[in-house]
Amino acid sequence: xAKINMMSDEEFEAAILAxxxxxxxxxxxxxxxxxxxxxxxxxxxxxxxPVVVPRLWFQGLEHVSKSEASACEIxxxxxxxxxxxxxxxxxxxxxxxxxxxxWMRELDKRRATAAQEQKSDKVLA
Length: 125
What we know:
Mean pLDDT: 85
CATH superfamily of the domain at 28-99: Uncharacterised protein PF10387, DUF2442
Helix content: 25-40%
CATH topology of the domain at 28-99: NE0471 N-terminal domain-like
Largest sheet: 3 strands, antiparallel
Oligomer: single chain
Number of helices: 4
Structural class: alpha+beta
């Protein structure tokens, strides 16, 4: 028979107190909209500025159709694309995290290359 680890009353009270402190400071999603023409998501957060993020910045969305990209919803503390089994946290999106560490390193390289190309185009113009 499996042993069940029980929390002491003091541990339970400490967890409740920590939750009461953390809850007001959490970034919560209010809405998400996908604009196919621009290929971007527009996020609105409770007590936070709106954020616009290109679809191609999200890990798991780089190869989906615009129809699949548009089928998203706020679920709890994240945004979900249930038909393609992709989820991202609202907290992560608000802090500019659109995938795991490896994904973010590659994304940073792609953005740096694009910025350098834009800079070169301006010099040539």
